[in-house]
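Please fill in the sequence for the structure shown.

STRUCTURE ENCODING:
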């Protein structure tokens, strides 16, 4: 099971990195005019920054859910990956590579024990918290080593946190907002601050 999950994460990461690389060149027309060496460099960059942000986001959900006694596993959505790559040829990416599927614990009679609103909210916010942490980490690195790579990595992670905290289903922000509006607001303001004002 772990081997399948790792395989799904690797495939998802490669597909997302490819989609972002194509979109960042300007889509199909930009891709035609881009040197193969430049594209490979961009792909390597995307693989590092975007895949790291995506994998740690998903593992944040997974680890928190398992801490609450649930079974959690990342499931790849093949259709979402194909859509992401196809849309990248038009210059933009809508990435829906998959999600961590959570199965609740069962009681002695085999009945599922539903997650409380608080636990569900904590599991949901853990992915965004991971991205906020990475954004701060890369921001610190960009101050010490002023490389565009670190600066952009900080912004990408902040953007992922903002996007996932939007309080509409099926995004994580919906469950966080339902659990605790103050915590949702603090997380959202932190992510927006990192993206726009740093």
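FILLED IN BY: designer on duty
SEQUENCE:
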């Amino acid at each position: 099971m772990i081997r399948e999950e790792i395989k799904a994460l690797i495939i998802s990461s490669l597909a997302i990195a490819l989609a972002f690389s194509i979109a960042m060149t300007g889509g199909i027309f930009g891709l035609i005019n881009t040197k193969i060496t430049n594209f490979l460099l961009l792909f390597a960059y995307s693989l590092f920054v975007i895949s790291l942000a995506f994998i740690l986001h998903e593992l944040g959900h997974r680890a928190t859910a398992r801490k609450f006694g649930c079974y959690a596993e990342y499931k790849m959505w093949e259709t979402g990956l194909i859509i992401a790559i196809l849309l990248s040829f038009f210059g933009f990416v809508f990435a829906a590579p998959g999600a961590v599927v959570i199965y609740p614990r069962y009681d002695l009679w085999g009945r599922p024990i539903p997650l409380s609103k608080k636990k569900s909210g904590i599991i949901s916010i853990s992915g965004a918290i991971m991205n906020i942490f990475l954004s701060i980490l890369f921001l610190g690195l960009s101050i010490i080593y002023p490389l565009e790579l670190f600066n952009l990595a900080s912004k990408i992670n902040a953007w992922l946190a903002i996007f996932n905290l939007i309080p509409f289903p099926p995004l994580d922000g919906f469950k966080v907002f339902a659990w605790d509006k103050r915590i949702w607001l603090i997380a959202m303001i932190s992510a927006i601050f990192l993206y726009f004002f740093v």
